[in-house]
Amino acid sequence: MLQLHQVHKTYSTPQGPLRVLNDISLHLEAGQSLALMGESGSGKSTLLHLAAGLDQPDQGKVILAGENIATFAESRRAKLRREQIGLVFQQFYLVPSLTLIDNLRLQARLAQQEDAEWTAHLIERLGLSGLEKRYPEQLSGGQQQRLAIGRALAPRPALLLADEPTGNLDEATANTVLTLLLSLVRETQCALLVVTHSPQVAAPLDRCLRLRHGQLASVTSW
Ligand code: ADP
Ligand code: MG
Question: Does the beta carbon of 45 lie inside 6 Å of ligand 1?
């Protein structure tokens, strides 16, 4: 589903080039989940952005559904993102002027994947029934993140990428949200990559990798 092959990424900064990813390779199959851990500043979000086609590597391949998106122009990457990838961020990024249900519908429509039955199913599974007409600001943090997960899954993406999805939630809410996320991922059989610094978030996933000094290593124990 997703493959990174010998990926390098360097940012230019006022202090000179900053090498963040140095020869990164990984693979993630459909239905599999992978946690990406590492200290703050280790390059986790950079890797996720490359996987999402939000940024391009200096070198190497980012292969999504058999195609190397690293060579795609931005418009083609944007189309692929809308149709194949669900994104969940720590800061939810819901559309404030749209109701809960319209946030879901918009995402599905952008991917030309409108499906009222699936949307209704997502709302129910996420425990958001009865809140369809509320605006994001009228929802709690946990409800907003559940909505963000529903929005990401509304187009039935093949790959779900989540960057610190529970980072803004208290522990109990984070657990509920994570459990829902994992059970919906199992139901849809999409591939899941979660960036997190939390061992509790990483533990239930199939595999865990740690990013350190620009390189990846397997995590086998906490
Ligand atoms: P993490 O998500 O693990 O905290 P990031 O991928 O956000 O790490 O950042 C890795 C490093 O790259 C950090 O030192 C960060 O300051 C730097 N960085 C991130 N984005 C940019 C950018 N657009 N320009 C320059 N430096 C950046
Ligand atoms: Mg980050």
Answer: yes
| Residue whose C-alpha is closest to residue 203's, from 76, 3, 35 | 35
Place of tokens 């906490």: 222
Atom of ligand 1 nearest to the CA of 11: 25
9 lines ligand 1 (CB under 6 A): no
Domain extent at residue 153: 28-55+73-218
146 within domain boundaries: yes
Q: Is the CB of 214 under 6 A from ligand 1?
A: no
d(CA 174, CA 69) in angstroms, rounded, equals: 32
Q: Domain total for the chain?
A: 1
Residue 151: strand, helix, or coil: helix
- pLDDT band of 147, cuts 50, 70, 90: very high
Taking CA atoms, 12 is separated from 50, 58, 68, 147, in Å, by 16, 12, 24, 36
- Cα first-last separation, the chain: 27
- Over the stretch 95-127, which tens digit does the pLDDT of each residue have? 999 999 999 999 999 999 999 999 999 999 999
Which residues make up the environment of ion ligand 2, defined by Cβ < 5 Å?
45
21 within ligand 1 shell (Cβ under 6 A): no
**Residue 168 to residue 92: CA distance in whole angstroms:** 9
